[in-house]
Design a protein that fits this description.
With 251 residues, the chain is of the alpha/beta class. Helix content is 37%, strand content 24%.
Length: 251
């Protein structure tokens, strides 16, 4: 369904990503882990068109998305969140989610008209559902910059899902979350998986990764050093040496 093959990215003489391969099926969660600077966020940026690919391919089914613009990648069905949140701080929570639906509007009229079409009503109902799912209904009229950090993290995920993706790339969604929020996050990812969404989870919180991922890919210095089930990866000596011995276990 979704795959990257021989994916590489160089910045001058620095090879930030070196021949990365992985594939996901519908309803599968893959953890992408490794030390800081190992290439995890670079991989997401290359996949989503923020950085051009130096070498390799990005595919969703039979569609080649290599070096496509970010809006083309999103329209094809790949959405992402950001490690450093990118919200419209002075806009309301509801408007932040609505802004992600622009690519779904099929006509210029539905984009510009103040008269709600059936398409617009459906999109508005989807916003209501996302507000409820991400526990933001009571905050819908507040500005994004007035939210707590945990609420902003939930809003970032809701915005990504508003694009109706088939693949969701989550860049450190657990960062800064308290135990209650982490439990909510695990439950939410499990629910999204049950809908058939394929998820790439970039995360340092190993308890979350090990408990929820079907497979894990481990990067170090831009190269894949291991892949497998959580059990296999957790026992890999190279992974323990390079990362797990120092990783945040969530305690």
């Amino acid at each position: 369904m979704f795959s990257v093959s021989q994916l590489s990215k160089s910045f001058g003489g620095l090879k930030a990503l070196d021949q990365l391969d992985f594939a996901l099926s519908e309803g599968e969660v893959m953890g992408l882990i490794g030390p800081n600077g190992s290439g995890k966020t670079t991989a997401i940026n290359v996949i989503t068109g923020i950085f051009p690919v130096t070498h390799g391919k990005v595919r969703l089914d039979n569609l080649d998305l290599t070096n496509k613009r970010s809006d083309q990648v999103a329209k094809a069905g790949i959405a992402r969140t950001f490690q450093n949140l990118r919200l419209f701080g002075r806009h309301t929570v509801r408007d932040n989610i609505r802004s992600s639906q622009t690519l779904l509007c099929k006509s210029l009229f539905s984009r510009l008209s103040a008269i709600p079409t059936s398409e617009e009503r459906q999109l508005s109902e989807e916003v209501d559902a996302l507000l409820d799912q991400f526990q933001l209904s009571e905050q819908s009229r507040r500005t994004a910059d007035s939210l707590s950090y945990g609420e902003r993290k939930r809003l970032e995920m809701a915005r990504a899902l508003a694009m109706r993706p088939r693949v969701l790339l989550l860049d450190e969604p657990a960062a800064g979350m308290n135990p209650t929020e982490l439990e909510w996050l695990a439950t939410t990812i499990s629910h999204l998986r049950s809908t058939g969404l394929a998820i790439v989870l970039v995360e340092h919180h190993m308890k979350l990764v090990m408990s929820i991922c079907d497979q894990i890919t481990v990067l170090n210095f831009g190269r894949k050093i291991a892949e497998g089930t959580p059990s296999e990866v957790s026992q890999n000596s190279d992974v323990i040496t390079a990362y797990l011995g120092e990783a945040d276990d969530g305690d």
